[in-house]
Design brief:
The protein has 119 residues and is mostly beta strands. The chain is built from 1 helix and 8 strands.
């Protein structure tokens, strides 16, 4: 039985690619600005990761109620064995969330920040 060429190529690419790392919380959050306009909350966060090589920083909503929106500050760490700078590196992320709330809490690995939403 012959193996289709396209399937063989796909298998080779999947086997050769590095394992994708799961997102983790960034090391810390340093600042948060939360503003609300026309039913959309704009979140702007700045923080740091523990080394170079981290990618795709983002804010991920994990809980919301009428008063507080709780968000994780996530990024993808470098793959094992990758050579990276061994220093704290700044990261930033923005998110737009539909809805209304009076405060936002952002969680990082070492700390968290809660801020009132500016209107």
């Amino acid at each position: 039985m012959k193996f289709p060429v396209a399937l063989a190529i796909a298998c080779a690419l999947l086997c050769a690619s590095p394992v994708l790392a799961a997102e983790k919380r960034v090391l810390r959050i340093d600042s948060l600005i939360a503003s609300q306009k026309k039913g959309v909350i704009l979140l702007q966060a700045k923080g740091a990761v523990s080394s170079g090589g981290w990618t795709s920083p983002r804010l991920h909503v994990i809980r919301r109620d009428r008063r507080t929106l709780t968000v994780e500050f996530l990024a993808t760490p470098p793959p094992p064995g990758m050579t990276v700078i061994d220093a704290v590196v700044p990261v930033s992320a923005e998110a737009r969330v539909k809805g209304r709330t009076s405060s936002v809490q952002v969680l990082a690995d070492q700390n968290e920040i809660t801020s009132q939403v500016l209107r």
